[in-house]
Amino acid sequence: MHVETHGPVGAPPVLLLHGGGVAGWMWEPVRERLARDHRVIVPDLPGHGRSADETYHSHARTTEALTKILHDAGGRVRVAGFSLGAQLTVLLAAHRPDLVERVVVVSAQAKPVAATGFTLGLLGATAGLARQRWFAKLQAKQLFIPDPLLDDYIRTSATISKQTLLAAVGENLRFTPPPAWSRFPGQALILAGGRERALMLESAGLLHEALPGSDLEIVADCGHGIPLQRPAWFAGRLAT
């Protein structure tokens, strides 16, 4: 897995996990603010960006690889994840609380959806569209990708394999928080955009209810893209 690290050596470590279909570059507006006072660790998850040659297989396998990154960081780490990365953040908090100090879970689906077979079949049949620039530009608008990062998104879309796409989306659609999530002893902030689909708002509520002491915040003017829509605000919430 490709990993980049920014910020002063010895500063408090923060691990940023991107969503499906993008890569570590999505954190650039947040990273440039955090790296002044934090050691910011930004991987490209398997099958994405500069890790495109490694197929995404499962959340479990990816979580194991991320655990090694946490070990190497030294001490307990703050972890923030968006969408697919938010599900991985929940798994890290649940299974390795000894390595995770605090989590920020952004727009994590936490309720399985029905008819996943149909959805994945349709996705597989149309997977080639992601390599078309016109289609990628339409998707970028839906994901709130800012203009300076548009070329990064188009390049990432063109290199994601059908196998990675189906595996990552399948894991996302079937995800439920593990029982150990309810026992995470660290701080947890759960975020969702007020303009997101009802399923995402319900999922945020489920994650909050499952973890006593967690904080839930609905960001009224945002959709499924809080870190890209409000990077300065998000960096501040993560740093405090």
Q: Could you characterize the architecture of this molecule?
A:
With 240 residues, this protein is an alpha/beta fold. The chain has a single domain (3-239), classed as Alpha/Beta hydrolase fold, catalytic domain (Rossmann fold, 3-Layer(aba) Sandwich), CATH 3.40.50. Helix content is 43%, strand content 16%. It has 10 helices and 7 strands. It has a 7-stranded mixed β-sheet with strand order 1-3-2-4-5-6-7, covered by helices on one side. Strand 6, helix 8 (198-210) and strand 7 form a beta-alpha-beta unit. It starts with a strand and ends with a helix. The mean pLDDT is 92.
What is the topological layout?
Elements: E1 3-6, E2 13-17, H1 28-34, E3 39-43, H2 59-73, E4 77-82, H3 84-95, E5 100-106, H4 116-125, H5 133-142, H6 150-159, H7 162-174, E6 187-193, H8 198-210, E7 215-219, H9 226-229, H10 231-239
Can you give me a brief rundown of this structure?
This protein is an alpha/beta fold and 240 residues long.
Keywords for this entry:
240 residues; alpha/beta; 7-stranded mixed beta sheet; 16% strand
